[in-house]
Design a protein that fits this description.
407 residues
Length: 407
Amino acid sequence: MTRLSPRMIALLLLCGAIAGVAGMSLIGLLHMIQQLVYGIRRIDGITFRDMVEQTSAMHRLLAVSGCGIIGGIGWFLLHRFGAKLVDIKQAISTSTTPIPLGTTVIHALLQILTVGMGSPLGRETAPREISSALADCISRLLQFSAEERKILLACSAAAGLAAVFDVPLAGALFALETLLFSFQRQCVIAALICCTTAAWVARLGLGSSTSYQLPTLTLNSTLLVWALLLGPIITAGSWLLQQQLAYCKPANRSTPRLIFISVAAFVLIGVLAMWLPEILGNGKAGNELLFNDSISWQYAAALLIGKWLALLLATRAGAYGGFITPSMMIGGLVALLAATAWNSILPPVPLIAAVVVGATVFLAVQQKMPLTAILFVIEITNITPDIIMPVSLCLLTALPVQQALNK
C-alpha cells in the first residue's frame, strides 16, 4: 500500500467517528451504572473514588458481590452459547478471522457493567473491541484488501483508546507501536486521522479536561539516580504480576463452575474493599491519591497488596477488562514506597515526580509499549515534558531486565 486512497481516508474518518461515539456512550453508561450501584449522583467534582469512599463498607461488599454474580453468569453464557471471541491482535494478524459483532458488543457491555460495579480491571478494552468489530464489518462489506483491513482495524482499536482517555497522539502511537509494528508514512497518517477524529467526537460529550490534575512537579538530579535504580524493581514487579495473572486465567471459561468461582472471588474483593475502597474500579481512585500526594506510605503498602490481590482474583473469576490504569496504579504505589525508603536515608527525591515515573514505566513494561506509555501519561496529566528524562533513565535499566526475564 503506497498511499492512502480517498476511500480509505473517508473510512478512517468514519471509523474514528464511530470510535468516538462508542467511547462517549460507554463512558456515559459506566457513570450511570456507578451512580445506580453506589447511590451517589455524579456531578462536577464527584469522582468514583468519592462514591466508594462515601458508601458504607457493607454497601461496597454487596455491590462487588453482585458484580461477581452478574459477571460470572454473563461470561459463562457468552462463552457457552455465543460465537468465539476474537482478540484484536489475532484479527489484525490474519484476514481470514472475522470479529463476531454481536458477541463482541455483549462482551464489551459486560466489561463496562462490571467495572462500573467495582471490578478492579480497566475500562478501555470495551470501546477498542466495539470499534474494531464495527471496522471489521465495514472492511468486509466493502471488500478491502488485507493490508487496508489491517490498518483500519488497528487504527479503529486505537481510536477507542483515544476516545475514552482523550489521548489522540498516544492513541495513534499505540496503533503504530503495539498493533501495526510499523512507522511507515501511510500508517502514521492513518493512525492520526482515525485517533484525532475519535478524540474530537468524544470531547463533544465528555469534555476535554485532563484525567488527572497534578501540582507543579519539581525535579532534581537525585531523581535521575533514583530512576536508574528503580528500573529493575519495576520490571521484577511487572514480571511477577504477569506470571501470576497467567497462572490465574481460567483454562475452561464455558463451565458452570466458573460462576461459583466468580462469586467467591468477587466476594473476597468486596471484603478487601471494606477497608481499601480505592482498589475498586480501574485504578483511577488510587492514582488520584498518588498524584496529589494524599496517601501515606503505610496506606500505599496496603493498597498495593489489596489491588494486586484484587487483580488476581478478578482474573481467576474469568472477568475481562483493561490493564492500563491498574498498571499505572501498581507502578505508582511501588515507586512511592521505593522513594519513601530512599528519602529516609539519602538526599530526597520529589515524591509526586517519583510516582509519575513509576506509573509510566510500569505501564510501559507491563503493556510492552514504552513510547506510548510516555506520551499517554503526558497527555492524561498535562505535565511538563521534563519528566521524559527520568522516565527514559528508568526505562534504560528496566527494559534490559525485562528482556533477560523473558528469556
